[in-house]
Amino acid sequence: ELTLRRLAVWLAEPSADLATLARLVAVCAGRGGGDLLRVLHNEGQTGDPAARALCRKLLSAASAPLWAMLSHWLFEGELDDPCEEFFVAADPAVPDEYLWEMRYSLREGMLPPKELVPRSAAAAALTAGKAINFLRRCCGEAAPWEGASAGSEAASAAEKALREGDATGLARTVRAVGGVVNQRLMEVLFSDRFNLSAHLMALKRYLLLEQGDFVQALMDNVGSHLDQPAAEVSPFTLAGHLEAAVRASNAEADHPDVLARLRVRVAPPAGGESGWDVFSLEYAVKRPGAPLDPLPTVLDQQAMDKYARAFAMLWRLKRAEHAVAAAWALAKPSSALQRVGRQSGSATLRGVLQRMAAHRAALA
């Protein structure tokens, strides 16, 4: 027989669930993505077993879209996020040159609770997705998993863990995926196709002036021309001197693509400057007509500006060294001249020789 007491007992648990749901509706209003997951997780930290079980059930269901978006991002490098609820944000207006630094970022307000997605896993996921996009957009690698050393087994296992929502294994999964993608990225960048190591060595040899014979030949060739006022310096003449310095040194054996990128730059004169003040070497990271070239992204404008400042400082030091060497050659008395001085007994000549010797000692 149904009585009010029995009915009240039957409805007690559903009523408590409805009260919990009403509270959740109020606190979750207007929230989405990781922000919503954080609220559900926090509401589940209660001593009421029924409320805790309900919140966990809702959290598991609400996490399903997150796992789907994360899987899509990790394996395809694509954001399927029309409502902007994923914790990775993209700015399509950023050019490929700044893809790595500026196009993708973490959306802090949409980060899930750290118990579900650790912060280290979120950062690693961001890096892995960026690497896939870099491979696709800058290197023409449409299928980053093909040819990766870890093989497709690791990708399949990671995708299965994400599909099942295994939060405890998420960090391990993301590290495994990131390791495969990063290894593939290194293989592509340092392959004969892009030869990143050759470009980095070229920057070291030519902009950081490590190639001594080339630097000496260039200094000898351009010295007289750069002594002129800056307004009279000809970039075409300097380009010819650069080619002559390459031919006169071991730089001639360098890769043709590397030498084609090495150029002369003459800054606009501000007035009262000499050619030394406006001359510099530059390394062209962008190749006209090359749609796929990762070098402008690896060495963006900010990095090349730092190389330019380093070259300017080192070039001034080399110029000072070159001037000191020339002064040394002029001041150093020859043995024949010393013999003449001793034989003639001329006090004047001996005084000149002594002053020259003192000057040489000061230079040393």
From TrEMBL:
Residues 196-356 form the Gamma tubulin complex component C-terminal domain. GO terms for biological process: cytoplasmic microtubule organization; meiotic cell cycle; microtubule nucleation; mitotic cell cycle; spindle assembly. Its main location: cytoplasm. InterPro entries: GCP, GCP_C, GCP_C_sf, GCP_N. Pfam families: GCP_C_terminal, GCP_N_terminal. It is found in: Cytoplasm, Cytoskeleton. Keywords: Cytoplasm, Cytoskeleton, Microtubule. One of its GO terms (molecular function) is gamma-tubulin binding. GO terms for cellular component: gamma-tubulin complex; microtubule; spindle pole. Residues 2-190 form the Gamma tubulin complex component protein N-terminal domain. It comes from the Eukaryota. PANTHER family: GAMMA TUBULIN COMPLEX PROTEIN, GAMMA-TUBULIN COMPLEX COMPONENT 3. Belongs to the TUBGCP family. This is Gamma-tubulin complex component. It comes from Prasinoderma singulare.
